[in-house]
Automatic annotation (TrEMBL):
Residues 15-88 form the ABM domain. This is Antibiotic biosynthesis monooxygenase. GO terms for molecular function: monooxygenase activity. It comes from Amycolatopsis rifamycinica. Pfam families: ABM (PF03992).
């Protein structure tokens, strides 16, 4: 993972998995920042978790990409009870809409200016 807070997660040796979570939030965000921080804390405990990138547009589109070494790590995160509770609250309160795309990465490259 990068030492720079605004740098992307490094390119890993494939294969690995990504979960791309794209959201549009509602106006009701009570409890969201605390829950998001807790989810970040929890996912870091999953063996095989590699990192996360997140971006938010001024118009409200959010994109979070989670990187996982293998399908088992991703499945462990998906089935975490606290994470499942946050998903339910997200559908009930925080998200106007979302999509989740899961993919196996077959090629990965990166660049960092010296």
């Amino acid at each position: 993972m990068s030492d720079h807070p605004d740098a992307p997660v490094e390119a890993f040796e494939p294969p690995y998995y990504v979960a791309v979570f794209t959201t549009v939030r509602t106006g009701e965000q009570g409890g969201y920042p605390e829950t998001a921080a807790r989810m970040e804390e929890l996912v870091k405990q999953v063996p095989g978790y590699l990192g996360m990138d997140h971006a938010q547009t001024p118009g409200g589109l959010g994109i979070t990409v989670g990187y996982f070494r293998d399908a088992e790590a991703l499945a462990q995160w998906r089935s975490n009870a606290e994470h499942r509770g946050a998903q339910q609250r997200g559908r009930a309160q925080w998200y106007e809409s979302y999509t989740l795309h899961v993919a196996k990465v077959e090629r990965s490259t990166g660049f960092t200016r010296p």
